[in-house]
């Protein structure tokens, strides 16, 4: 149950944190280039898409439950332009480690790789936020959107765990949201990095906040 500490109400249970009236589900970069067999990440050396496919299934269940509970659902969409106009030299340098050095592009706006995967397509009234950095709060209106709608808690899901998910979790914490991560709804093509990122995330969240989708869904059913 919640506690009052120095006149501040503190939510301590997962059930309180994820009440639909003050919770938003954020789906980070569920795009073909990151998630689909023909996408960019699937072509990378040593990539393993099994974890991603499993997370897509669990995320589909969680999304359906969130819609039934009438949560605010927000998608982020990694966005690049062919001109690289939004990419700084340091950012490009980092991407040269795993992308084509002559064309270090992924999720080019308008292309197939940019699109949200078929199984998780947004409904017409659900919000898509274009982003140009790993952290979904950087250079976007995400924080304004959440605060304008009385959101206290964000459930962060999506791809990939060690990059955009971890950065968005860090951003949510810095913006003072209860931040819930269902570990079975995030994934990476690099399994070791995925588990390492979850270890880092666990060190920054309460025991209630790092959970699994089944527990969240069961609490919403109550």
Cα end-to-end separation: 16 Å
Tally of helical segments: 8
The helix-and-strand class reads alpha/beta
State the major sheet.
Answer: 7 strands, parallel
- Which radius of gyration do the C-alpha atoms yield? 17 Å
Any low-confidence stretches, pLDDT <50, length ≥5?
none
Instruction: Name the average pLDDT.
Output: 94
Instruction: Report the helical percentage.
Output: 25-40%
The fraction of residues in strands falls at: 15-25%
Instruction: Report the principal-axis shape.
Output: globular
Which sequence of SSEs, written as H and E, runs from N to C? Answer: EEHEHHEHEHEHEEHEH
The count of DSSP E runs of length 2 or more, i.e. the number of strands, is: 9
Care to describe what's here?
By secondary structure, the chain is an alpha/beta fold. The protein is built from 8 helices and 9 strands. The strands form 2 sheets. Strands 3, 4, 5, 6, 7, 8 and 9 form a 7-stranded parallel beta sheet that branches. Strands 1-2 form a two-stranded antiparallel sheet. Helix 3 (50-68) runs parallel beside helix 8 (213-221) and helix 6 runs parallel beside helix 7.
Could you give the topology of this structure?
Elements lengths: L2 E3 L2 E3 L3 H4 L5 E6 L3 H4 L14 H19 L3 E7 L10 H7 L31 E5 L10 H7 L4 E7 L1 H14 L3 E5 L3 E2 L3 H12 L7 E2 L1 H9 L1
Parallel strand pairs: 3-4, 3-6, 4-5, 6-7, 6-8, 7-9
Antiparallel strand pairs: 1-2
Quickly list its features.
222 residues; alpha/beta; two-stranded antiparallel ribbon
Give a short synopsis of this structure.
Helix content is 34%, strand content 18%.
């Amino acid at each position: 149950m919640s506690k009052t500490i120095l006149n501040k109400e503190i939510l301590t249970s997962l059930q309180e944190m994820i009440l639909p009236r003050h919770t938003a589900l954020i789906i980070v970069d569920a795009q073909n280039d990151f998630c689909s067999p023909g996408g960019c990440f699937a072509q990378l050396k040593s990539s393993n898409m099994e974890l991603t496919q499993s997370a897509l299934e669990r995320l589909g269940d969680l999304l359906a439950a969130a819609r039934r509970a009438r949560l605010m659902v927000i998608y982020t969409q990694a966005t690049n332009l062919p001109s690289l106009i939004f990419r700084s030299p340091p950012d490009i340098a980092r991407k040269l480690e795993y992308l084509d050095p002559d064309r270090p592009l992924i999720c080019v706006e308008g292309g197939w790789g940019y699109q949200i995967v078929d199984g998780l397509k947004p409904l017409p009234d659900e919000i898509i936020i274009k982003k140009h950095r790993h952290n979904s709060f950087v250079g976007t209106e995400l924080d304004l959107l959440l605060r304008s709608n009385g959101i206290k808690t964000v459930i962060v899901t999506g791809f990939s765990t060690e990059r955009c998910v971890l950065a968005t979790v860090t951003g949510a914490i810095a913006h003072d949201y209860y931040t819930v991560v269902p570990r079975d709804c995030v994934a990476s093509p690099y399994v070791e990095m995925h588990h390492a990122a979850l270890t880092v995330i666990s060190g920054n969240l309460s025991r209630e906040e790092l959970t699994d989708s089944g527990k969240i869904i069961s609490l919403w059913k109550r």
